[in-house]
Design goal:
alpha+beta, FAD/NAD(P)-binding domain, D-Amino Acid Oxidase, Chain A, domain 2, 3 domains, ten-stranded mixed sheet, eight-stranded mixed sheet, globular
């Protein structure tokens, strides 16, 4: 026996077992009787419902293959096929063509034209009831990016929680409209990811990135930025210019800068909507057969036959392998077989509402990151005016703050999103914004919460935890959104067993065990306390 399965996005899953050799002939009287029965049924249905006889016949024929396969399973012979795997594949192709034809026919259950979309799964073999090749845990930036690049080559299911269309009350940092994208970073590994990700976003949708340029403002002796800028100019010809404070002020008159600051300008940089990226990447994956399942994975169990996901509502789903890309919710969870050096951190950012006139006056404003000296803040970022789904225009800005804390497990992450539990840094953030944009007029102020995962080496973990069973793509480290498409590419290649691309250090993205020394972020409260 071999087994063939299909999934209908509206009609659910279905499988049937068929003999290794189907009967090549049927008894002639039975064939005549079957034809007479079919013709009579078609005539009666056409008359009863006043439908075209040919259309009714096509509708009935579309389902006869399933009836025949069920009959063949009962009447099958016991002689073994010479190559069971080949028989299964050949049968899947033959039946698949029929089912694809069926998908274009009409579903006459309600006498309405209803498409029957079909997604194919190859039966994984005895002892394994795997549903798909890969189960991706997490439907945010890393999860959607991985699904986008993996779905053309394998069967994929993505699991994530349901979220309102506007992102309100949702768990996940991607429910937002503004993230900076540019080449420059303190770490060349991140810069290389950013470059590759930008190309991927343009391929996905050329209009995804809004070009506004970006200013990186730092102290003269700041490590990282100047050296990375030099490397990017030399190796990839990146357009990164050094400006004086006067030159920056002449080009961007809304900004106030100090003469002793170093200012790096990326004219080609800008910002993008992470919400839209996730939507587009998910659609791309679905277009290649991926399925999306609503739910929260509480635990993963690996074995010699595959991976089983235990969902919060009691469901269990199986796959050949799993990819964990659930961000902050992976820290302290039961999703990983062993402890990994991964920490979830609370994040707070501010939304400054602008009136239409003020937004128009700031239309030439670039994206800005600034190294600042402040007792409660570090590493300020500010995005230009962006219109949000509520119809209002905001300046979004934030920083690392002394209110930030580690969140030990998924329950703590959810509690943080729901109601928070720390001090409000809005007053300090307002002071930092006023120092940078002293003439800006703000209509109203708001703060919002999110969370991110941090790693022991400050780069994402893109690694195999269990060969053939478990891969991880974790650790945005507060900057993962703009690199997400590249992280998804690398994760998909790793999962498929493809060679690691030249130009990227494989060791730079390996995971670090939990008992190793932590060289990742130190909370600002610990630095100043």
């Amino acid at each position: 026996m071999v087994r063939v399965c299909r999934i209908g996005r509206d009609t659910g899953a279905g499988c049937c077992s068929v003999p290794s050799r189907l009967h090549q002939a049927a008894d002639r009287p039975q064939g005549v009787g079957s034809f007479a029965l079919f013709a009579g049924a078609a005539l009666w249905l056409a008359a009863r419902y006043h439908r075209d006889l040919v259309a009714v016949a096509v509708g009935i024929l579309g389902s006869l293959n399933a009836v025949y396969l069920a009959w063949a399973a009962v009447q099958g012979v016991e002689d073994a096929a010479p190559d069971l795997g080949k028989s299964a594949d050949d049968l899947a192709v033959a039946v698949g063509r029929q089912w694809e034809a069926e998908a274009t026919a009409q579903d006459y259950r309600d006498w309405m034209a209803v498409a029957i979309p079909v997604s194919w799964l190859r039966y994984p073999g005895p002892g394994n009831d795997a549903f798909v090749d890969f189960l991706i845990v997490g439907d945010g930036m890393f999860g959607a990016a991985t699904a986008r690049h993996l779905a053309p080559h394998a069967t994929v299911m993505v699991i994530g929680p349901k979220a309102p269309a506007d992102g309100s009350g949702a768990y996940g940092a991607h429910h937002d409209e503004g993230r900076i994208t540019g080449d420059l970073s303190r770490d060349i590994a991140w810069s290389e990811l950013n470059q590759r990700a930008r190309d991927g976003m343009i391929e996905l949708d050329p209009a995804l990135i809004t070009s506004r340029g970006a200013l990186t403002i730092t102290t003269r002796d700041a490590p990282g930025y100047l050296e990375v800028a030099k490397q990017l100019r030399q190796h990839s010809g990146a357009d990164i210019r050094t400006l004086t404070a006067d030159a920056a002020r002449a080009r961007f008159p809304m900004v106030r800068l100090d003469p002793d600051e170093t200012i790096l300008h990326q004219p080609a940089a800008g910002y993008f909507s992470p919400r839209r990226y996730v939507t587009l990447a998910t659609r791309s994956a679905q277009g290649n057969g991926a399925t999306i399942t609503l739910g929260t994975v509480r635990a993963l169990h690996t074995s010699a036959t595959g991976v089983e996901a235990e969902l919060g509502d009691g469901r269990r789903l199986r796959a050949e392998a799993a990819i964990v890309a659930s961000g902050a919710f992976a820290a302290g969870s039961d999703l990983l077989p062993g402890p990994v050096a991964l920490r979830a951190k609370s994040e707070i950012y501010a939304m400054a509402e602008l009136d239409d006139q003020q937004a128009a006056e700031l239309s030439a404003m670039p994206c800005i990151t600034r190294t600042i000296s402040h007792p409660q803040l570090a590493d300020l970022y500010v995005l230009p005016p962006i219109r949000y789904p509520d119809g209002r225009t905001y300046l979004k800005f934030g920083a690392n703050t002394t209110a930030d804390c580690w969140l030990p497990d998924p329950a703590a992450v959810r509690a943080w999103y729901d109601h928070g539990d720390g001090g409000d840094p809005l007053a300090a953030l307002r002071d930092a914004l006023a120092a940078l944009l002293p003439d800006v007029r703000i209509r109203s102020w708001h703060t919002r919460r999110c969370a991110d995962a941090y790693t022991a080496h400050r780069r994402p973990y893109i690694d195999i935890l269990e060969p053939g069973r478990l891969v991880i793509a974790l650790g945005g480290n507060g900057r993962g959104a703009q690199a997400a498409d590249a992280v998804g590419q690398l994760t998909a290649r790793l999962a498929l067993g493809k060679p690691w691309p030249s130009g990227f250090s494989r060791d730079a993205f390996r995971h670090v065990p939990a008992d190793a020394l932590w060289h990742g972020m130190t909370l600002l409260r610990d630095q100043t306390g």
